[in-house]
Amino acid sequence: MVDILTSIRGKRLGLDSSGNLVVDGPGIILNNGSAPVNASSTAAVVAAGSALTLTRETHSGKLIALDTLTGSTVTLPAATGSMAKFRFYVSALATSGSHIIKAASASDAMAGFIQSMDDTSANCVAFYAVAGTSDTITLNRTTTGSVTVGEQIEIEDIAAGLWLVRGVVSNTGSPETPFSAGV
């Protein structure tokens, strides 16, 4: 390691030869002038529970598990172009309700697509592009997803008011678009 400082309390701080910040301690607390943020959370998978509102500081880069039998509703932060990326997967098939991922407000829209594959031997594949005003993804346990554990959706904050969506889900019956203007 290069350029290492030692505090009066004996903690080490510096940059390694690749330019990576090195901190000797259990975590890093960032203070941006308002509320301190724990930047060292090691949980790679976050349970959505019945409802979860995401923040860039806590959830960006994490895998969000849609994990409740009654459905999980996850609210994205406002899209600002921060390039924050949120990944979702169905870890529990909803038996009532739906798994829902939605924008914080109707001023945010989604762009991109979700691929849906039929769960029968027909193996029908459908692609759904986002309509210009869509701000919500609903996996309804049949025609729009939440049929197979492991379905995945990735959403990235690419511009002010715009989320980029990519995903793969499965359906039963005739597939339908999971996108809507629901906020």
Shape: elongated
Structural class: mainly beta
Number of helices: 1
Give Rg in angstroms: 20 Å
Hey, roughly how much beta strand do the residues contain? 35-45%
Query: Can you count the beta strands?
Result: 17
State the strand order across the main sheet: 6-8-10-15-16-12-13
How many structural domains can be distinguished in the coordinates? 2
The average pLDDT is 84
Task: Describe the overall structure.
With 183 residues, the chain is mainly beta. It folds into 2 domains: 1-40, no CATH class; 43-180, no CATH class. Helix content is 2%, strand content 43%. It is built from 1 helix and 17 strands. It has one helix at 56-59; strands at 2-6, 12-15, 21-23, 29-30, 37-38, 45-47, 51-53, 63-66, 73-75, 85-90, 99-102, 109-118, 125-129, 136-139, 152-159, 162-171, 179-180. It has a 7-stranded mixed sheet with strand order 6-8-10-15-16-12-13, with no helix packed on it. It has a 5-stranded mixed sheet with strand order 7-9-11-14-17, with no helix packed on it. It is elongated, with a radius of gyration of 20 Å. 28% of the residues are buried.
